[in-house]
Amino acid sequence: MGWAALPLDTVYEGEQLGWWVQAQRADWPGLEEDQRDLLTAICIEEDQELAAAKAAAAAKPKVSRGDRFAQGLAALARFVERERNARVPRPHREPLEIVEDGPDGEDQVVVHQVTPGSS
Predict the structure, then answer these.
(1) Looking at the DSSP assignment, which residues form a beta bridge with residue 110?
(2) Which residues lie below 8 Å from residue 97, measured CB to CB, with a gap of 6+?
(3) How far apart are CA 19 and CA 26, in angstroms?
(4) What is d(CA 44, CA 38) in angstroms, rounded to the nearest whole number?
(5) Residue 95 phi/psi, 5° resolution?
(6) Cα–Cα distances in Å, from 6 out to 21, 26, 28, 48, 75?
(7) N or C: which end of the chain has fewer CB within 10 A?
(8) From start to end of 1-119, where are the E strands?
(9) pLDDT tens digits, 50-65
(10) DSSP string of 31-46, one letter each residue
(11) pLDDT of 86-117, one tens digit each?
(12) End-to-end CA gap in the chain
């Protein structure tokens, strides 16, 4: 079995080995050359799909705490308007349309599942 097939929940001597291996394979472009050399020596290689997904996630604009609060408040208002109470079940997520910067620089509307009242 190669490192790529190692289950994420693999623990060795108390360390989360599966998660660590995945993180190294995803962080490959950001590692120093000597780190990559050491990993290659023990047959751990870059996972280009994981690295691309990590880069795409990092490129997404971060939502400020104030914006998250406003989104949670808007989701709560929608819930209260529909349900006529503010007793939101813990696992509930409210679909909320949010305007974001699109990949071409144009604004785009994206539906996010927001926890009502969260910040």
Answers:
(1) 98
(2) 109, 110, 111
(3) 10
(4) 9
(5) -70, 130
(6) 8, 14, 17, 17, 40
(7) N
(8) 94-101, 107-114
(9) 888 888 877 776 778 8
(10) S-HHHHHHHHHTT---
(11) 999 988 999 998 888 777 778 888 888 898 87
(12) 43
Which run of H or of E encompasses 109?
A: strand 107-114
Write the CB contacts of 111 (distance below 8 Å, at least 6 apart in sequence): 95, 96, 97, 98
Alpha-carbon distance 50 to 24, whole Å?
10
| Tokens encoding 71 | 């989104």
Q: Which amino acid is at 47?
A: D
Per the listing, tokens 């023990």 go with 42
CA–CA separation, 74 and 85 (whole Å): 14
Torsion of CA 54, 58, 62, 65, to 10 degrees: 60
